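Recap from last week: sequence in, structure out.
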Amino acid sequence: MIRYLEPTQPAGQQAVQAAEATLGVRLPQQYRAYLLNHANGGQIESAGLPGFADVSVNNIFGVGRDDTHDLVRFCGYLAPLVGLGFLPAGLSAGGNPVCISMRHQDPGTVWFNDHELHFDDPDAFVKLSDSWDDFVDAARPYTPELPSDARVISVMVSPGLEDLLRNQRPS
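Predicted structure tokens:
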């Protein structure tokens, strides 16, 4: 389940149509329905997906927004993704796009894009879900998976902070 940090109302039909006209594409049906019936994007509680320990989604893009969660604005920044047939629908931690495929071979599937890899790198895209609805249904509060034998080996504290802590007097 996706939980928004600030409540967001569904998008209006005009905002969806205006975004589609600007982008020159019809939004994937499930994502379009999500925007119209559930929420118009925004910042969310970090959401993870089963089987993808290193992926946490923090933002969902909406339409007609005048903030950093606007789909059209991000498609402008991520034009190469759009050119490859991927519609950015959100961002994961570290600014990696979460995209919906608009390609003929796998329309509607949801993908993670590692933006530090070149688009031609086969590891740059990882399929997260077969559909937007499955993606939304699978999302859970993100909790990093640590090995059961994980332990702190060392901690580095700046000398200034160490002096401050050592010289503090309990009240």
